[in-house]
Amino acid sequence: MVRVKHRYLLVSLLYPCASSSVAAKEPLPDVIHFHQPSSDQLTVPFLLRVIRDSVAELFGDYGAGVVSTSLQIKYLSPATSTAIIRTPRAHYQLVWAALTFISSLPKPMNQSCVVRVVRVSGTIRKSEEEVIRRAKDIIARAQRPGVNEGVVGDILKAVGRTGGRREEDVMAVMDEEYDENDYSDSES
Amino acid sequence: MSGPRAKGSTTDSYAPKKRKDPPSSSSNNASKRHRPQFPSKTIPATSTSKAFPNDEISVSRFVQAREREVLALEGAMQAAKRGQMRRAFQDVPRDMRRRTASHNPRRVPGRLRSRMGREMREDNTTKLRGKSGSGVGKGSRMWIRKDGVMKKVQKRKEKGEKGREKGKKRKGEDCNRNSVGAKDTTKSDLTKDEKDALAQRIQNRKPRVKHSTSLATPPTPPARFRKRQINKSWLPTHMFHTKRAHMTPPSQPLWRFALPLTPTAKSYRPTHRANTLRGAIAWDMSYIATIGLEGVEGSITGLLKSLGVGDGVDEEIWEDRGKGKKWRDGVRVWDGWIFDLDAWPEGIAPATVIWCTQEKNGTMSSEQPPGTSKNKREKRRVFIRTHPAGFPHLWGKASKLAKVQKPAVSIEDLRFEIGSIVVSGPGATEALNSALWPSPSLEGQEHSPDSPETVWKTLASLTNPGSLPLNALLGFNISDPRLHHPPRTVAVQYDTTSQSQLTRTLAFWPIDKTQSPPAIFDRNVRLASSRSLPSQQSINRRKRAAIPGDYPEPRSTDPQIPVLLYASREAGSWTLLLPWKCVLPVWRALMYYPLSTGGNPKFGGLKEVRQLAFEDSRPWFPGDYPGTRAGWAWELQERLAREKEWAKRPPGKRINWESVDLGNGRKGELGRGWACDWENIAPQDEGQDPQDSTIDPQFSPFQHLPSRIASEFFSPRGFHDPKGVAQVFNIDSYLFTVKLTLLARGVPTPCARIYRLPTTNPDLRARWLSLIPSSESLSQSKNKSSKPLPRLPKNAPSHLRRRALAASLLEPVVLPKVIPQPGHKDYPFVPDKVDLIGFVTTGNFNLGEGKGTAVANLVVAKVFEQERGDGKGKMQEKFLCIVREAGQSVGRLARWEAT
Predict the structure, then answer these.
(1) For B816-868, how does the pLDDT look when each residue is reduced to its tens digit (9 = 90+)?
(2) What long-range pairs does A93-96 form, CB within 8 A, spacing at least 24?
(3) CB-based burial label for B53 (10 Å; 0-12, 13-18, 19+)
């Protein structure tokens, strides 16, 4: 039997202009400024609509058609601005491109936004593992004392670097091999 | 109950039902067929307003939100796993899975049985009873033996109660166990001193152990396993192996043992790797027979000499210095062949002889220098270990010889008393090191730095047991390995200081001076250790009581298991001797040891023993010695198996031996194609038919020539007979074992025919010789091809170009020497039957060498004949032969070498 193959895009949403709206009593580490929570208006149908519109805008009816076969939001957490998006394997680049071209979220949110594709994988399990790994990493960095305080913090600010940003913060990981064991998908 | 069904029952109550009710989707039915729930597809996520009330962001809330995300996703992964349709028997480890009737809940491991039962009930799978398993005592009525079983349980209960009462009574009295304990009830009114006095007066004589020269009987198995062991015995690790290995068929035990043949997991390459590159491989070799000798040194020496130990080939072991002295002092083992001297040199089997070290008593030796009469009268102990195939012959011989000695040697069959484990591979020492914890010394002090116990602990980083002094041994006591279960990886140190320390230890080998008599030679210690093994329950209790993460504290009452370890340089393996009943705990400790290089040690069966021997081109006893009785029995058995395999195939698909084309108009395979047909090349009297009934098929037509003598005969310097053995004995009927290496391609298989270079047809001989891929021709052709004419630059003037062209045209064309390949019309055909000199006994592609090699046997006389035929031939040509697979017409050139 032939299975329908997918790609799972692990996506994190960044809000470059949002930090002003956040009320904070204490100075927060850079990681928290970087990984802002989304508003509650970011829902699954809303995100889906945004992606569809973006794909249609870039690739027309053709793009919207081929992508719509299996486009689905598997996981969306507004509190952490993380999402796992299922796409058809043959056309995941279209979705990726559409996500990259999103610069702001439309009406109810009306917020400028950057969508970062963090990982592309063949099974949902691997993207879940990646979310866990990243979350743990972020927790560790958020709890690290004194990154933004004292002399070191000042120097970092002066140099214009956020504490502990690494290559993987700006790169997406792709694993093409994980096509098998797609156990989590029961309806295809 | 609602919907269509309820309606139908009310309206059509009087009309007969035409069809069954359709399967309703009511909750009643659904609960009957309970399927594992699919995981809910949505992964729970918290909303921002919940995670950050009042839009207030703080580090702790931020971290909490992420933590909740981690939990949610981990839960999702778990749920997805639970949603898989995996049945219980699919969770059995791969190498333990059985294909046959794996759906039968009685065939899955105990821990999965209840789950499987539940799954079957949920699925409404029919469970057939009485058809599977042994079928004894079950059947439609279930347990026929149930009455008996119930009675037994009742009896045990009663016994237990009685025992408890007795125990209470005994506790009430303060009795001294060492005194005449049986009568303590009547003498309970005596005081303790009186009792001691009495005890001294009526001291029981120590029971004398009678060494009977009768054969040992296997230990009586528990009742439910007894019927399966009528014609065979089980190894101590039988249960471990039956779950994971193909065993000998129940009706065809090997040497009266149920042996593991090969693991069910694929293991050809893994075995090679575990032995040479990384890891370790272990065998339960408890089937190897041990004979114990006890007597004065002179008698034992006499007995061993008359068994041909070191006779003619290894004389220096009887000298009073060096190797021989160390061997008789009990710090080295001796490995070699044992012969039946009535018909020298009829080899019985390869054997290992180990002397027990003498007690080192400082005061005594100063009073009486060695060699005095008392020293001579002192009893010594010796173990002879041999393969079970050669055991009956050896036992018969040795027990006769033991009586002849003056004073007589007592001989004991220790077959089911001493078991053994062999471990080989780079991780072998490490794994053994973790399994064998030297027991703390009795006085509670540390072992001396040179004692075997301390030295053993320092050997963990040794990767090749062969780098120990040749045939070195260590004997000490270990504590119960179950106390240190699960085993942990030994901290192997590879820094320079510890490595140099190890090198120094290996070079000086301090154990030569410190080895005390290994306790395994003492029957009482052996028995005591196996009797005092605590139950698993009590071990568990102690483990529970221990500090978490620590092993239980050693106690003075812990059993001390005597072990003897020796390394083999040939095979690069450790051999561990230990009491039969202690094999299993040590085996478990070995099998579950996490190696520092990753993975666990593997286990092997008989096939793996043979494979590794073949990879080292070591002949394997008995299979590669058709000249011995045991080897001949093996050959006959293999022959039958191969014939059966051949006859099983339909006539159109099996090799038709009559039509095998041997070239030059000859047709038909020589002898029986499925056999190493030794009868066919045996020297016979004139006019005797090879299939004559007067030849007893139970006896080999040949005898085995010891390898040391063979390698003297056929040394690389030439064929000669230094001691004139050939004149004394009729060498016509002797075989010797060789290693074959094919010169070109091809893989030899068992039963392949081996020819010498043609002696009758010089033309054919020359054609065969032209096949030798000489290194000279190879290098020449390489040089030619690698040095083409120097290329001219593109802008070279035309006259230079023309000159170069002329030169290249005038260049004589040198064609590379074309070696005809099989199938080509110029490929020589195989020689005649007179040139048949032997058969391949083991052959395959050798992973160690990267090409086909074989172990074969050749007829001594035929090889010497060749020498007489062409005495002037090149040295190299003498060691050439032609190998032809049985049933094939293509021969291939090979080089042999006496092993």
Answers:
(1) 677 888 888 888 999 988 889 999 999 999 999 998 999 999 998 888 877 66
(2) A94/A55, A94/A58, A94/A59, A94/A63, A94/A66, A94/A67, A95/A9, A95/A51, A95/A55, A95/A67, A95/A71, A96/A9, A96/A120
(3) exposed
| Contact assignment for A24 to B56 by CB distance below 8 Å | yes
- CB of A114 within 8 Å of a chain B CB? The answer is no
A positions 128-157 inside 8 Å of B (CB): 128-129, 131-132, 135-136, 138-139, 142-143
Is the CB of residue B487 less than 8 Å from the CB of residue B434?
yes
Which domain covers residue A170, as residue numbers?
6-180
A8 contacts on B by Cβ (under 8 Å): none
Q: ipTM, 2 decimals?
A: 0.83
In DSSP terms, which residues pair with A54 in a beta bridge?
Answer: none
* Nearest chain B Cα distance for residue A187, angstroms: 10
Q: Which residue has the tokens 């017409």?
A: B889
* The total number of structural domains that make up chain A: 1
CB of B59 less than 8 A from some CB of A: yes
Q: Which two tokens stand for residue B724?
A: 């004139």
Residue A186 counted as domain residue: no
Judged by a CB distance cut-off of 8 A, whether residue A26 touches chain B is yes
* Min Cα–Cα distance to chain B from A53, Å: 24
**Residue A74: inside a domain:** yes
B324: left (phi over 0), alpha (psi -120 to 50) or beta: alpha
Q: What is the 3-state secondary structure (H, E, C) of chain A?
A: CCCCCEEEEEEEEECCCHHHHCECCCCCCHHHHHCCCCCCCCCHHHHHHHHHHHHHHHHHHHHHHHHHCCCEEEEEECCCCEEEEEEEHHHHHHHHHHHHHCCEECCCCCEECEEEEEEEECCHHHHHHHHHHHHHHHHHHHHCCCCCCHHHHHHHHHHCCCCCCCHHHCCCEECCCCCCCCCCCCCC
Looking at the domain assignment, is residue A88 inside a domain?
A: yes
* A68 is a domain residue: yes
pTM: 0.72
Q: Which of B885, B856, B883, B389 minimizes the C-alpha distance to B632? A: B389
Report CB contact under 8 Å: B73, A29.
no
Q: What is the CATH number of the domain that holds A62?
A: 3.30.70.3250
For the stretch B191-233, pLDDT in tens is 667 767 666 666 666 666 655 678 888 888 888 888 889 889 9
